[in-house]
Amino acid sequence: MKEEKAYKLLALQEGISNNEAKELIDAGLVSARGQKIVVARGMLSDTTTFKVMKIAKPTKIFEDENIIAVNKPPFVISEKVAEMFKFPLLNRLDKETSGVVLLYKNEEFQQKAIKEFANNKVDKTYLAIVRGIVVEDFSVELPITTVKMRSGAFSKIDLSRGKTAITHVSPLMVEGKKSFIKVVIETGRTHQIRCHLAHAGFGVIGDEKYAKNSSKRMYLHSYEISLLGYKFRAPLDRSFSEFGFEIPKEYTK
């Protein structure tokens, strides 16, 4: 039995370039034998058959002379959204997180918006599916420090040197040992929701970095952002119903 690097085998199967195959694997979109392929250069049997997950395209929610609001699907980096719509980013989401991404169209509006973000005057609501049973509201008010690593940013609770981080959680639905929740953040620290929820014992499904679990995707969605008189909502996709949750229509339209 011969072996070859995973990305080369994938490139042959899909009829794409080696670089394109690497990008698919790095994005977490490739699996084989029911397991996600995480190392593009990993050696696999040359008889391996891959399954490649299809990803949706970002869709425009709103546009005027100041701003464009986009619903970003998971597995797409925010910078790709800016490239597609040809305007700079006002905010960013992790690659694995879906939902509202904002682009600005003039510097005057950008400066006003930056002040709103800096002064915590931007309302941000997320939806998530987490492990564990959440039956009552709770808040996590623990400071966070973020360090840069080769694998990307990593945040941790740091009582002595961390920056203020405040996360409010409300239960919406429970199915088995998983909960569908609403999360409102007063601050916007890197990976704040993922870090706080994991610390509270309710790790986000699919969050490999903080919750140490894998899934088809990370079930965290930026549902609503309000700033400077604007309010934008990004409806959930069908993936949030995969664990048996009957998601209310208000969150899907």
From TrEMBL:
Gene Ontology molecular function, alphabetical: catalytic activity, acting on RNA; pseudouridine synthase activity; RNA binding
GO BP field: enzyme-directed rRNA pseudouridine synthesis
Bilayer-crossing regions: none
Protein's UniProt keywords contain ATP-binding: no
Enzymatic reactions: a uridine in RNA = a pseudouridine in RNA
Keywords: Isomerase
Gene3D superfamilies attached to this UniProt entry: Pseudouridine synthase
Isomerase keyword on record: yes
Domain of life: Bacteria
InterPro entries, per the entry: PsdUridine_synth_cat_dom_sf, PsdUridine_synth_RsuA/RluA, RluA_PseudoU_synthase
CDD domains found in the cross-reference section: PseudoU_synth_RluA_like (cd02869)
Domain named Pseudouridine synthase RsuA/RluA-like: residues: 82-199
A Pfam family of this chain: PseudoU_synth_2
Family affiliation: Belongs to the pseudouridine synthase RluA family.
Name the record gives this protein: RNA pseudouridylate synthase
Organism from which the protein derives: Campylobacter iguaniorum
Lineage of producing organism: Bacteria, Pseudomonadati, Campylobacterota, Epsilonproteobacteria, Campylobacterales
Name of the gene encoding the protein in the UniProt record: rluA
